[in-house]
Design a protein that fits this description.
The chain is of the alpha+beta class. It folds into three domains: 249 residues, Rossmann fold, CATH 3.40.50; 99 residues, Beta Barrel (Elongation Factor Tu (Ef-tu), domain 3); 128 residues, Peptide chain release factor 3, domain III (Alpha-Beta Plaits), CATH 3.30.70. The strands form six sheets. Strands 25-22-24-23-27-28-26-29 form an eight-stranded antiparallel beta sheet. The longest helix is centred in the middle third of the chain and has 15 residues. Bound molecules: guanosine-5',3'-tetraphosphate (G4P). It is found in: Cytoplasm. This is Peptide chain release factor 3. Belongs to the TRAFAC class translation factor GTPase superfamily. Classic translation factor GTPase family. PrfC subfamily. Its main location: cytoplasm.
Length: 539
């Protein structure tokens, strides 16, 4: 149980100075990538480098693969490391790293987006042969929207793939970020010999280990030695690196933090190449938690009393208990298990006695957490996504953006005698954000509209309504494709327009739904006085 240590330092009750120092040694990030780019492999390799686990592959066999969450659960069981289904925590050098999980499937994107509200940086993982893929671009758009600094890792360089310079062009063209490689590959994709470290001109030569199972030893050679070893292959890397320097592709910390440039590394996660360098870059360049602005834009100092916000809510992992688990990102002060905090939305107290306890048979509960850390709270029926919890001076953090839904369907109870269960289920799913629940007087309470980013959310909602709440539902698709936020003044006029319907979301926001973009454009042109605010698109 060694790696659970980082969260339990001896500073319980910590003085403000402790909090600032503890925050400074935290790095909280997520990996954004398209399925199959190697996120699970990289996650495991990172943990391996941090010496959380002894040998990669032990829990990551082909046969046993069940997606990242269960990979982590298996890793936890095998090694006793501190994992929730939302975050993996480990220490590296003197830094505490919180790696937040982003569900892989495209249709769970809304969940993923919420996770990105809780990170301070993102690692954009690209498959060297495929470049920037659809899901990566969608997630990147959220990082851009939120101004999250992005570190780019080109993975699978051990396999044939694109030309490195062409890849840099693609990153620049499609993200608008200036790529500033910190390392440059020696050998084309498929002939990965090592990297030229552009920061000091040395050659980091990699030695393969059997199946990438242990930390790949890295030998450092001078430029002369590199030339003697690799000849023209080395010269080509040097030339390309100089070309990059001439075009200004050199790391600048301010530009990186301002989301204008992205440092780039080349790696082969499966062979553990470049993984240690990524950890060093996370420690050296990625930002530590800073004072987080509240809903009025006023920063809450890191050393203010405890505060945090819920970025993810999950139904009980234990089918026997209809329990809710809320994941909280600590923003200020010290979290201590057992403390009674206030829910900013309801003004009600919330007792944190069961922080993380539900999550594992063998796991110890989290006792103390600092800004940047993630705490899992059980018995969290009273908590919803976006809620702020605080102690001492009140604070409310900005609401978490919900993304523009693109698919809509009316939900009805298949068995009308189960109406009570139906209502309860709808309320819960809406509160968890599994789907956005929209209602209107015209449709009535018995026929709420589910609004989702990806159609798989419908399946998840149907399944849970039936199995968790005992209320089977039917879903009738609606022809709408576009949603805009509107207001009470515009709503009556919108309601009379063709191909438009106005509904109210559970959080009180009014949504105008359009069947096609022309219906929307006509209204925008002819009735410019109407409020029709775009929502953040999931792409
Ligand atoms: P994901 O979580 O992003 O979906 O990707 P995952 O790590 O599951 O990796 C997808 C596939 O890519 C796996 O192969 C994995 O081994 C492989 N992979 C990951 N990183 C690298 C790399 O750096 N180089 C190469 N050549 N392959 C890499 P698989 O065949 O699906 O599974 P397995 O047989 O390897 O377990």
């Amino acid at each position: 149980m060694t790696a659970t240590a980082p969260t339990r330092t001896d500073t319980a009750g910590g003085t403000p100075a402790d909090v600032v120092a503890e925050a400074a040694r935290r790095r909280t990030f997520a990996v954004i990538s398209h399925p199959d780019a190697g996120k699970s492999t990289l996650t495991e390799a990172l943990a391996l480098h941090a010496r959380v686990i002894g040998q990669a592959g032990a829990v990551h066999g082909k046969a046993g693969r069940r997606g990242t969450v269960s990979d982590w659960m298996d890793m936890e069981r095998a090694r006793g490391i501190s994992i929730t289904s939302a975050a993996l925590q480990f220490s590296y050098r003197d830094t505490v790293i919180n790696l937040l999980d982003t569900p892989g499937h495209a249709d769970f994107s809304e969940d993923t987006y919420r996770v990105l509200t809780a990170v301070d940086a993102a690692v954009m993982l690209i498959d060297a042969a495929k470049g920037l893929e659809a899901q990566t671009m969608k997630l990147y758009a959220v990082c851009r929207h939120r101004g999250i600094p992005v570190i780019t890792v080109v993975n699978k360089w051990d396999r044939p793939g694109m030309d490195a310079l062409a890849l840099m062009d693609e990153v620049a063209d499609r993200t608008g970020l200036a790529p500033t490689p910190l390392t440059w590959p020696v050998g084309i994709a498929g002939d990965f010999r090592g990297v030229l470290d552009r920061r000091d001109g040395t050659y980091r030569h990699f030695t393969r280990t059997a199946g990438g199972a242990t930390i790949a030893p890295e030998q450092v050679f001078s430029a002369e030695e590199a030339l003697a070893r690799e000849g023209d292959t080395w010269l080509r890397a040097v030339e390309e690196s100089e070309l990059l320097a001439e075009t200004g592709a050199v790391h600048d910390q301010e530009l990186f933090l301002a989301h204008a440039s992205t440092p780039v590394l080349f790696a082969s996660a499966v062979s553990n190449f470049g993984v240690g360098q990524l950890l060093d870059v996370l420690v050296g360049l990625a930002p530590a938690p800073v004072d987080r602005p509240d809903e009025d834009g006023k920063p809450r100092p890191l050393d203010a009393p405890f505060s945090g916000f819920v970025f993810k809510v999950q139904a009980g992992m234990d089918a026997g208990h209809r329990d809710r688990l809320a994941y909280l990102r600590v923003c200020s002060g010290v979290f201590e298990r057992g403390m009674v905090v206030t829910n900013g939305r309801t003004g009600r107290p919330f007792a944190t006695k069961y922080a993380q306890q539900v999550l594992g048979r063998e796991r110890e509960t989290i006792e103390t957490a600092y800004p940047g850390d993630v705490v899992g709270l059980v018995n969290a029926a009273a908590l919803g996504v976006g809620d702020t919890l605080y102690a001492g001076d009140p604070v409310i953090y900005p609401p978490i953006t919900t993304f523009a839904p693109e698919h809509f369907a009316v939900a009805r109870a298949a068995d009308t005698s189960k109406y009570k269960q139906f209502r309860k289920g709808i309320e819960t799913l809406g509160g968890e954000g599994v789907v956005q629940v929209l209602v209107s007087e015209r449709r009535g309470d018995g026929a709420p509209v589910f609004a989702v980013v990806g159609p798989m959310q419908f399946e998840v909602a149907s399944h849970r309504m039936e199995h968790e709440f005992g209320a089977r539902i039917t879903l009738e698709p609606l022809p709408y494709k576009i949603a805009r936020i509107t207001d009470r003044k515009s709503a009556p006029e919108l309601a009379t327009a063709r191909d438009v319907e106005v509904l109210q979301r559970a959080d009180g926001e009014l949504l105008a739904l359009f069947t096609n973009k022309w219906a929307l454009q006509v209204l925008e042109r002819n009735k410019p006085h109407l409020t029709l605010t775009p929502m953040v698109a999931a792409e």
